[in-house]
Specification:
The protein starts with a helix and ends in a 5-residue tail after the last strand. The chain is 42% helix and 24% strand. It has a four-stranded antiparallel beta sheet, covered by helices on one side. Strands 3-6 form a two-stranded antiparallel sheet. The chain is built from two helices and six strands. Keywords: Signal.
Amino acid sequence: MRLANQHLMRVAAVLALAAASASVSTSAFAQSAEYRRGYEDGYAAGLRAGGGDRGDRGRGQGWGRVRVEEAQYGARRGMCDARQAVRREVERNGAVLAGNHLCGDPAYNEEKRLTVVYRCGDDAPLRVVAREHETLRLACRR
């Protein structure tokens, strides 16, 4: 009986420690997400206030930062979300080639199109379309 009580006490202690560490890690994650969101908002506000929201990245004066909001690739029979792939290509070189490498082949043996909706800073969204194998250049001029 004494051995069973010791075993139960150990199990209870382990469970209490596990529960405590889970709540600490959850609150730490929430704090870091909150901190990151606040930092990004403050940084963006500072850039706007200072007139420095150009995101030049070596492209010369007058270029703004492109924010890809939507990117759909495909045809009537099938579409796929190409947003992440388009963002990566635009960040690398300001252009994106419309093709199956973006998110697969959603409509086999059909001509596909890439439709991208993007913004330049706080401006109205722009919509551009390219046929398969064409290149889109996304740019912002101020």
